[in-house]
Task: structure prediction
Amino acid sequence: MTFTELGIVSAMWNEHCSYKSSKRWLRTLPTTGPRVIQGPGENAGVVDIGDGDCVVFKMESHNHPSYIEPYQGAATGIGGILRDIFTMGARPIASMNALRFGAPDHPKTRHLVSGVVAGIGGYANAFGVPTVGGELEFDERYNGNILVNAFAAGLAKSDAIFTSKAEGVGLPVVYLGAKTGRDGVGGATMASAEFDSTIEEKRPTVQVGDPFTEKCLLEACLELMASGAVIAIQDMGAAGLTCSAVEMGAKGDLGIRLDLDRVPVREADMSAYEMMLSETQERMLMVLRPEKEAQAQAIFRKWGLDFAIVGETTDDQRFSVVHGGETVADLPIRELGDAAPEYDRHWREPGRYTPIVASTVEEPEDYRAALLAVLGAPSQGSARWVWEQYDTMIQGNTVERPGGDAGIVRVEGHPRKALAFTCDVNPRYCEADPYEGGKQAVAECWRNLTAVGADPLAVTDNLNFGDPENPEIMGQLVKAIEGIAEACSWFEFPVVSGNVSLYNQTEGRSIPPTPVIAGVGLVPDWRYAASAGGAKPGDHLVLLGHDGDHLGASAFLRVVQGLDNGPPPSVDLAAEWRNGEFVRSAIRNEQVTACHDLSSGGLAIAMAELALASGIGLTVRLDTETSPLHAQLFGEDQARYLVTVPNDLANFFCMNAEGAGVPFRILGTIGGDALVLEDRFSIPLDELRAAHEDWLPNYMDGNTAPSGN
Amino acid sequence: MKSAVILLPGLNRDRDMIAALTKIAGEPPVTVWQSETEIPDVDLVVVPGGFSYGDYLRAGAIAARMPVLQAVREKAEKGVRVLGVCNGFQILIEAGLLPGALMRNASLRFVCREVRLRIENADTVFTQAYEAGQVLTCPVAHHDGNYIVDKAGLKRLQDDDRIVLRYADGTNPNGSLDDIAGIVNEAGNVLGMMPHPENRIEPAHGGRDGRALFASALDMVAA
Result:
């Protein structure tokens, strides 16, 4: 085997590209449905949204590179996921990112937050896609391995989807975009390894992004696709030229012959190994109709991009590479692609926590202080400092910006239709019980879409775990996938694309299991979408779902009591479905003025966020007959929503809830300028807002003593 | 009235601008590519926002040297209305059509949020549909919007009432001198502004505050 061949096999068979540890389990996920046009296996999933349109979306991690070089690592993460979307013929219309950093007092955290956020903004803003949602969490378990998971969605016509499957023998394989350089050589292999003290030496494996070239590439590709010249297209992402060429050939049952002397290069004397493994960004490989070649070339010249015929399709199912007139690689293509090894790794059933009875958990001395502490905790507070660095309004279709339950973007060309986007997971839940945690991530995603009035359509998953060779970590992966599969099947909420990131561990210390679920929903009429910001004076505040009772693995326990134990709340899928269907129909029938889902921090945080978003106070009474006050306020029980209902509809609304079998409780009324819990406390909105908003900007400016969580 | 939108690689609010002009004027603007040396006979030329040529070298610097900008300059000299928004403003400054410079935001960070904008001068062709002193809500989204000009230049802008838009109610997002958000040239036919009125023209945007700017520039104002 030649050195180049060895590099090619290593690139194709590493964990990042081959999914060899996870494939067996990923197959158990539900991936089909009446609206699914394309499930996993292509660059992104495709889901029908009616009227001949479809939404194309995927989420992908760029964890390892972002830790080594935060700006470029995060920037190229966005660049890669955007390319996955427009490779399929879709114009990107929305993005999100789920970010997880180490403890605020870790010396690297501030630098990483600053670099990652600037990198995402630097790329997405220049490319011109609105960022409409995301997650931000801090936990010392991510000290050595941050998570940067980027989601993008695009719009396409259902009959004009492009894939990587090459067809036809003797057709030109065309290279488009930026010139190949030495950046990112071996990036995918780096991303499949655990970190150790040599991490600084890995910086050259991180790619460098150029959003200007990507924007030109987007416009050129869409023009080229519209011209009818494209037979197959694949972007050069992980493992660059190698992976894209192999995928095109393997999917089409063809061979590919590449002539590296024709590849546009940025520097002289690059070896075949370097050219095959370079991860220079903003490059595409296509198979074009020969008769349209001149037209295609003209489009690329107009946008100032390189265009070169670098090979051809063959009928021998071989992947052969020629450099300097010599054959430097000649390998069977199927074995490289689909037939990569598959492991059935040893795994161990994770242990379970014994349940925590709420009445045995100490009550806080000062409820007012407890609420402010949870509301202002780093992982709970407002991420405004982050998303104000992202262009959230470009394209003119953003109806709901980040900060709410789900972002909403209008569908261009339709008067009323819109899409909703959210991404969710609670790693503490997944750590305590990967199965319930996986289920909960799906349920919360589904609930967030429901809370804005959307019909949940489908999800993409980004599974971030530690070392799969450790049976305990493998057990987390297996059980989390089981939980995700069960919830997705129940909700008919298929997984249409995804990404697995393993080996997120440094010197033996793993991240908590973090399977991020990003969901897309369809809003039939954006004028009737709900948000937490619509409450009006005199409205009734109504809790849908039962009273809070579950404090295990809660934000309250962690922030106020300094404890990290107990099982996560369990998810009753039937109750989720029933309560969600009721909420969605109430929103569409204009029976509620505001809606917010209950999640981390429970009722107390949901009330505070609703009051802040609506810019108006509220007064509630809680009786402690069913459960203690701290459990009612901070319990993280599932299948719950907070809604505000106009006075004249309140009776009607409650009767409907009763009829639908949805538990409800009228908590109080909207009005004033403080959050008031009768007989307990009153917190003025200004104080509430300061607690929610101030920590992150102060921390990033270095003005605040970093706190633990 | 007819309008044209200048297209340069790397601009990305061109589609927003075309959509806004189409919705307000009832017909789409013509588009003019970077290499064109002539602009068709129109009444309004718009240079939209984005990151032309990646903002490499300096925001607007490369764009200002492209053939189509010479054509914009000729139109401006003939008295045709020219509007530059965000990167368009940066380009018009680099092209010498407006005074001053737009530096990196004082925070050194990109900023996207809604700000308050006061109409300081309602007697320009771009603001005639507003009232002087009127305060609007409008989004900004930029990295380099921190306007600066020398003392004499600032005095001229102030004395001639050429500061058309100012950030109001303490919402200056970028450290701009004298809260400057938008200025016109001496003849009053070239307006450069950092905020994005094209993203504030319909209920889905949360309001229609930006609409009157286009209605003014297109002379669609009831007499």
